[in-house]
Specification:
alpha/beta
Length: 260
């Protein structure tokens, strides 16, 4: 039955939609302007293609384009998507870390950029459940604690009871958490319940909560909410959300910092 559903979905794709997916498989994202140069069709036709691909679960539409979508988008597919924006966010977030701080970095391509911008020999302690972040910090002579747990292949994170028990015994000056969605109704959300649990626990053990997210996360909602809007102190992003969401965030006393 599963194979039949996959086959039926593949048969629904026309040649143009297949080419779009192939392009996204190579680059991780596409822009409408780029597709208009590739195909002799109207922008409305391309938008209908995008709508169908999003309905079938292949992509997630963003402002001016789309990124690959899935139950969990693999880390290697996300790392180079919106890389310049994530680098600006990571640099700004790293600047908030002070001497003597104990911080938690959860898994993700944006939090990875924070680790990249932490200077060597910094007198801080980093706790993480992400293997890629631990690897980035290796050699920087920054004390790093990696919590144990069950490894998630797509995201290279450690989750489950072992990770939760370790985090429950700690207290952080600040945490830096990634998210896949931010809405007024659902707060901050993630597509994986195990990762959402770790985010929730880390937030509960922190004096200061920072969410790092590029602008494509605003207005998006995933299944598992890990914090209401008022549950964090600030969002570090590359550009502000629309006026409606900005107003709600301001009402919830959430600061918005823009990376540059």
């Amino acid at each position: 039955m599963k194979e039949m559903r996959v086959l039926m979905t593949q048969q629904q794709l026309n040649q143009r939609q297949q080419i779009i997916l192939e392009r996204m498989g190579q680059a991780g994202e596409v822009k409408l302007a780029e597709l208009k140069e590739m195909f002799e069709v109207t922008e409305m036709t391309l938008r209908r293609d995008m709508e169908k691909l999003e309905q079938w679960g292949y992509i997630r539409r963003t402002f001016g384009g789309a990124i690959l979508q899935g139950k969990d988008i693999a880390l290697h597919e996300r790392t180079n998507v919106h890389i310049e924006e994530k680098m600006r966010i990571g640099k700004r977030a790293a600047s908030l870390v002070g001497a003597g701080d104990s911080i938690f970095l959860d898994g993700g391509s944006t939090t990875l950029q924070i680790a990249k911008f932490l200077p060597p020999d910094r007198s801080i302690t980093v706790v993480t459940n992400a293997l890629n972040i631990a690897a980035e910090l290796q050699g920087k002579r920054i004390p790093t604690i990696v919590v144990g747990g069950m490894m998630m292949d797509d995201t290279a994170t450690l989750v489950g009871p072992v990770a939760a028990a370790a985090i429950a015994k700690m207290a952080f000056k600040s945490v830096f958490i990634g998210t896949t969605g931010i809405t007024a109704q659902h707060g901050f959300s993630n597509s994986n319940m195990h990762e959402a649990e770790i985010k929730q626990l880390a937030i509960a053990k922190a004096a200061e909560v920072n969410v790092v997210a590029d602008n494509t996360k605003f207005g998006r909602q995933d299944l598992f909410s890990f914090a209401p809007l008022h549950g964090v102190h600030r969002i570090i992003t590359d550009s502000p959300p629309d006026e409606a969401l900005s107003a709600v965030l301001q009402e919830a006393s959430v600061d918005i910092l823009i990376g540059s």
